[in-house]
Amino acid sequence: GQYNILDKSAGNIVNHVIFQAPTKLGKGVLVAPTVHGNLLVGPDAEDTDDKENTATTSERIEFIRQASKKTTKKVPFNGTITSFSGLRATPSTGDFIIEESKEVKGFINVAGIESPGLSAAPAIAQYVVDIFKGIEKDLKEKKEFNPIRKPVIKFMALSHEEKAALIKEDPRYGRIVCRCENITEGEIIDAIHRNAGATTVDAIKRRVRPGMGRCQGGFCGPRVMEILARELKMDITEVVKDSKQSYILTEPTKQNKPSEEVLENMKIS
Q1: 255/91 Cα distance (integer angstroms)
Q2: 262: enclosing H helix or E strand
Q3: Superfamily of domain 2-85
């Protein structure tokens, strides 16, 4: 399914998730405010056998625009900041597949999760735990396990007094890196160094939101790369967008200081 995400200036067009009448392909094109204040419009529904195809097309995006008019007439699509698509496997069973693999002992398949997968996720997790308990009989509860993680600081949600106190304690929270989403250097560094820390540009984007705003990383992207390289002690050319081979930079465009001969030739020319 393909989606449009609109700028926050369009986020108040609707106050609720607006669904259409469902069909065999799904719940139709929805128009919904996001928790961060954007407007989400989509998806379409198109069957494909290509497991890697996450492309967006002008034809299907136009379909979404026209279909959205059934419920919401005045969506300002000129405020679209990005489009994306996703894939999900459709099970032949007509239901979620949650069971131990018949080929690999201890491997539990959780597949074909369609609507309402998000709502069902907590119950699915507990169901998988129960399956695993049935497989492994000698499980022991970890007494020292701490299920509570350190709170994530959202700088812009703090009061003026809280911001001032935090900046006094750690000046990095006073440096705005992403102007669209008002994300600070301190928030990015925290995302890198906490448990299961971010190691790629997109990982930072998903956790803290630099690059999610109107300019889509055009301003903050290079700065995020610099912070990742510095904090992870790697060369900036080693920083990737998401996957292992998604390098953003390949080599410097400006090499070492020119030789004296080159400098002299530059003077002559």
Answers
A1: 54
A2: helix 260-268
A3: D-Amino Acid Oxidase, subunit A, domain 2 (3.30.9.10)
Q: Is the pLDDT at 119 greater than 70, yes or no? A: yes
Do 141 and 129 meet the contact criterion of CB atoms below 8 Å apart? no
Cα–chain center distance at 168: 31
CA distances from 21 to 3, 43, 85, 251 (A): 18, 14, 21, 52
The mean pLDDT of the chain is 91
pTM of the model: 0.82
Angle at 76 between CA 74 and CA 77, to 5 degrees: 120
| Token pair recorded at residue 130 | 């129960």
pLDDT at residue 192, as a whole number: 98
Tell me how far apart the alpha carbons of residues 254 and 257 are, in angstroms, rounded to a whole number: 9
Domain ranges of the chain: 2-85, 97-135, 155-238
